[in-house]
Amino acid sequence: MNLRSVLQSSAVLRGRHLWGQLRERMAQDVNHAAVLGNVTEGGGLTPRFAFMAVMSCGIAILGLLQSSAAVVIGAMLISPLMGPIVQLGFSLCVVDFRMMGRSLLALLGGIVLALGTAMLIVWLSPLREATGEILARTHPNLFDLLVAVLSGLAGGYAVITRKGEAIVGVAIATALMPPLAVVAFGLATGDMGIAGGAFLLFMTNLLAIALSVTLIAKWYGFGMDNVAKHAMWQGGVIAVTFLLLALPLGIALRDIGRQTWIANQTRTVVQQYLHAQGGSIERLDVVRRDGLLSVDLVAMVPGYLPHAQQALAAQLARQLAQTPLLRVRQTLEANDSGRRDRADLDGLRLSVNALTQQAAQLRAEANAVVAQTVRAQLDGLEAGVEVDDGQLLLSIAVATDEGLDESALAALRDAVSSRVPGWTVIVWNRDALPQDPALVPIAGDDGERRLTR
Questions:
Q1: pTM for the full predicted model
Q2: DSSP character for 402?
């Protein structure tokens, strides 16, 4: 072994020695028995814990339904869930299964009480829409895991050093109760997507805090008398849990990054195209869901651009390597004595098309009702019924075999007219012309029989 290797090994050993001395000195300054007693006392399922869990989740769901960040923060401040979570972390550190059981029982009781309270409030509330505060807690990512880890380390440090005032900041950072309230909202409204996303965020916070507390407690000398097997078991649990959490959250963070890149590229392409045409973006919404990309654009243009949709779709397909579902609406801008009048041309065109389709459907339904009414009045007679809704004309050609004379035909015409007021009714034998010689049956362009004057 050369001199350089010896010096390097000596430096590593000296660093480990100093690090171990620092850790030992920090552990000696802590009253381990007092800390464990405080943790055990503050993490049980007590009447105070149950009451505060109900109050905290009630406040949280009301703040979420109103999209009030201030009310949600108030719910975080009084949330009692930190107690049993910290106790769970210490129980893992010292390998105390009785303490672990108490903490899990308290967590289970608090979760059940909180979910029941929040779901009851949602059922009784007229507000059922998912607000921004609710949706913000349905898509956790890797950053949420990092926040929870750092908050758990800070919370464990505050408990061990008896600096409890830091718990307030930790409670705000990790936000344990609001995600649980969002789970209740999703369950109460039957939206499993919201419930599942919020539950993942809640479990991420819970497990990350508990395991981070375990790490900081181990650093301060708790559980040092455990056997080596326990240390390996603890390390395995922590590593596997963080890995299982990090994988889906990392994928979610990647998807968020992809969504941000797509939105930025889309805005760049649209801005360049509209700038060349003298226009600008009024509103641009880019949504990517289940692999499908939809782009909704409202553009301000000096004149109508007939090929804007096709040109933008082609440019976006080249830039994004996928064809988006694009909807372009153009708003015409004009200056008149400093005032701008806007005409949403594409929106108007879409509205006219929709109204035309609705009118055609209503006409078809009305014609069907008229024909059905007439056939019911015929009472089984063999006759052909022709409807001209444009001129409100009804032609009833009765088969000659029915043997109706002129008076019977007139009676039938009067009976039908009473059922369809406002319509001109013509009743005639099939082998004769109508009584009014100005009315003759002809074939329309669509092949259907019509009456004309």
A1: 0.61
A2: G
Q: Beta-carbon neighbour count of residue 66 at 10 Å? A: 15
H or E element, residue 80? none
Cα separation of 273 and 264, whole Å?
14
Domain ranges of the chain: 10-226, 259-348, 362-452
Helix (H) or strand (E) holding 420: none
The residues that bridge with 286 in the sheet, in sequence order, are 295
Query: How far apart are the C-alpha atoms of 119 and 181, rounded to whole Å?
Result: 8
Q: How far is CA 161 from CA 20, 155, 273, 301, 447, in A?
A: 19, 10, 61, 64, 92
* pLDDT at residue 183, rounded to an integer: 94
pLDDT confidence band for 262 (50 / 70 / 90): confident
**Cα 76 from Cα 172, distance rounded (Å):** 6
Angle (CA) 445-446-448 rounded to 5° is 105
Residue 170 corresponds to which amino acid?
V
Greatest alpha-carbon pair distance for the chain in Å reads: 131
Fold classification of 259-348 is: Alpha-Beta Plaits (3.30.70)
Of all residues in the chain, what percent are helix, strand and coil, respectively (each to 5)? Answer: 65, 15, 20
Interatomic CA distance for residues 5 and 278, integer angstroms? 70
Rg of the chain on CA atoms, in Å:
38
Which one is the CATH code of 362-452: 3.30.300, 3.90.1200, 3.40.1130, 3.30.70? 3.30.300
Q: How far apart are CA 155 and CA 171, in angstroms?
A: 9
pLDDT tens-place string over residues 144-184: 888 888 888 888 888 888 766 556 556 655 568 899 999 99
How many CB atoms within 10 Å of residue 143? 12
Q: What is the CATH number of domain 10-226?
A: 1.20.1080
